Amino acid sequence: xxxxxxxxxxxxxxxxxxxxxxxxxxxxTRPRRRQAVVAYLFLAPTLLFFAVFxxxxxxxxxxLSMSRWAGFDxxxxxxxxxxxxxxxxxxxxxxxxxxxxxxxxxxxxxxxxALTGSVLVANxxxxxxxxxxxxxxxxxxxxxxxxxIGNVWKYMYEPGGLVNGVLNALGLGSVAFLQxxxxxxxxxxxxxxxxxxxxxxxxxxxxxxxxxxxxxxxxALDGAGPITVFWKITLPLLRPSxxxxxITQFLTGLQSFALIIVMTKGGPGDATNVAALEMYxxxxxxxxxxxxxxxxxxxxxxxxxxxxxxxxxxxxxxxxT
Amino acid sequence: xxxxxxxxxxxxxVVTGAVLTVVPFLDMVxxxxxxxxxxxxxxxRFLPEAFDLSNYRAAIDQLDLPVLFRNSVIATAVITGSVLxxxxxxxxxxxxxxxxGRNFIFRLVLSTMMFPPFLFFIPHFLIxxxxxxxxxxxxFGRGGAGLTVSITALAMxxxxxxxxxxxxxxxxxxxPDEVLEAARIDGAGEFAVWWRIVVPQTxxxxxxxxxxxxxxxxxxxxxxxxxxxxxxxxxxxxVGIQLLQDYVDPTRTMPIVMAGLVLSILPVLxxxxxxxxxxIRGVMLSGLK
Lengths: 321, 289
Description:
heterodimer, A: mainly alpha, MetI-like fold, 15 helices, 2 strands, globular, B: 14 helices, 65% helix
């Protein structure tokens, strides 16, 4: 989703008419209608797809979110107004706490960990040789299926796994990372951050490269140490990239649940249950399509608000400069 | 930048981070060689006693890897081919052809990227189940399993990609109009202009988009899981390895699963290492992953 709003592309998005007005004048003789027919032929598969797999599903999901339906006969969809939405927020519902809280904690925790790690690593890679090699290494998790990542980490968290092996070797006791409700969510957050650090490093590296060398030279002349340079020059000038990484990772965190399905299925209890997973379970485990669709739209509103905030921040930034 | 001293602190950070990144992969490979009673026991040992391939053979038999592999290849190939074709066609129309409604359609394409994928799992699944006149359904989508009986169900929701269209359009805009106009004057139709001039010129972007799509499609899990629950015959690699875990030799479940995972991620890893320049450019352009 959000990708069209990347800082380096926004400008181009706003000038869709950049091409061909002069050429067009010269081409008046050629029948314009024919070009329009060709254009719609070229676009036909795309438009057909968006009609069936975008517009229709959105309408259908909205209808379902306001209905009760057993899922068999399309003629038996029973409209219930906003009941599904109010049910989500009624007293005793698990949707607000712990599920929505978990979702926010999961997203925030991932962003905090991934951002800290990637700022540190990107800044350090920038000072080394073989930068490409390092980035390739950090990138491996990005191209690996969530099933592999989830299973490997789940196995590493087990009593006989690598993480507890290291803890035991250090003289510490074993931890039941995924079975203990207190450690389950942080443990999953670590894996999600581990898996997304590579992209953040990539984007931050590009940001670092755009900081003019002369700033560093001036700082060196003034006798600034590496820590001062990092806080006073690197971080402030890296702000646009940091903000971008922050928001995109936050959005991804709000929606991700594949890793959680593989590692904990939301358990123990609801300790790692997040909104998207709840939607999935309500629909495909309990067949409650209405509640599930309502949950999906609630999460969508959260995601949309964050997206609009992002759009607003980058628009404003664009006007400043 | 100041590079007078040896950057020992930077080396420390980067190497530590790299070790943390690679160790889970190494643990996966090491576990895939461990024999019965060697994994999950205390104390933890990193290295296996012997490097024999029996777990790999077991994975191929017990996890049904050849079938899973075939399903993954078919779904991935169909998705990648379709995304490349439709993105290139639509991108060309939006970049180089003038027609009423162009701006509206371009905005529509951009807006498709605003909708998060989780919003579509439920309606897409229900639409495929109730697809009229397929899989035993009547005209009103009742009575059968719809399109979920077919392997195409794996690919259907991913055949067109808004980001792909956007990406292709952005690159085609920079192709000079004079070149296209010259070809048109020589009598080439729009289809020939697209195929002979635009497609060859956009090959590097196609590689980038193709690679991004390939990796995403190969690794896709949730949708494939949904379709496979309705029709186990179309399980893909990630889904199959996750679901078939319960059916393998219980004394060495994890080693067999790890062996299956190693085999399943190899194609993508190799492709990524060979073409990483293109892939990394794609991630930069999308900023998403």
